[in-house]
Amino acid sequence: SSSSTEVTVFIKRLRRKTDLSNMAKTMRTVLNSNSKVTVLRSDLHSVINQGFLDVPGNLFQTKFRNPEELQNDIELKCLNDLMSLLTPSTDIRVLLDCMSSNLQAFVIQPSRNKEELRKVASDFQLRWNFLLTAVSKALTLNYADSFG
Known about the structure:
This is RFX8 protein. Residues 5-148 form the RFX1-4/6/8-like BCD domain. By secondary structure, this protein is an all-alpha fold. The chain has helices at residues 2-18, 20-31, 34-49, 67-72, 74-85, 92-108, 114-141.
């Protein structure tokens, strides 16, 4: 039951941090437009593939990385999974379910106890926010059409 309490606290923290309600409203508008989704996907792939992210050692460069290192980059897996699902008419619930499944698989289930869950969840949240900030910054600085 203490693990359940920690999971609940972690989920509440993520909800507060990202404000899912506002994000869902915005995303529904974007997801209902074929042209907006196409531009967003293109801009995201461009920012990532051209190495515009302001992160140490381009996290997305997988050619020269150790495969064991990639397993530790769960935030990258989450972002890539979300991007792969990003298509016109994708229901926002599909994206939220994807994120929820990844959190369950990579953050919640592997944690053996309350302290470990706290650490893993905190580390994930920090890296996830850092990654999303870097993506937003890159989209802004490169005048990406999708950013507005």
